[in-house]
Amino acid sequence: MALDGVFTAILVALGMIKLPSLFPGAEFQLSAPYAVCLAAMVGFKRYLIIGICSSIIQLLLGTHTIWNVLVAMVFRIAAGLIVTKCPVRKFSIPASGPIGTGCARFVLAVMLKVPVMPLLAAAVPGMIFTAVCASAMEPVLRRVLSKSGAQLYEKKVGEASCE
């Protein structure tokens, strides 16, 4: 339980950090690659609980709005399901972030009644950033957590996979 609190705190902190981009609306959020790695390491249910706690904290702190939470939750569900249900790391780690972002932008476009293509176009640099960073970050985080004795998600016998 304490470890999940640490994961939540890191997710909150990274969710507040946005790296600027040359294009308006295309900033990079550092929490996306971390979230993808977290889903791969702790499993979908635990990852989703950590994400919900993170969103509640960010709402209470006033650093996120309900729109930010909506986008984050769509991202978490899409990316988390891809990573946990298709654990072929070579595919799922780099693909889940961009797919999650695409799903989140689509839902946002529907909710705001705006065209989806400009939202997706602005997100492309962040999608690339997430895919590259998550692929590089996952083995490092996995090694750090395994050395610390943290209990990580392990695929159960008979569980579906994309292999």
From TrEMBL:
The keyword Membrane is assigned to this record: yes
Transmembrane segments: 6-23, 35-60, 118-137
Keyword set, alphabetical order: Membrane, Transmembrane, Transmembrane helix
Superkingdom assignment: Bacteria
Protein name (Swiss-Prot/TrEMBL): Uncharacterized protein
Organism: Clostridium porci
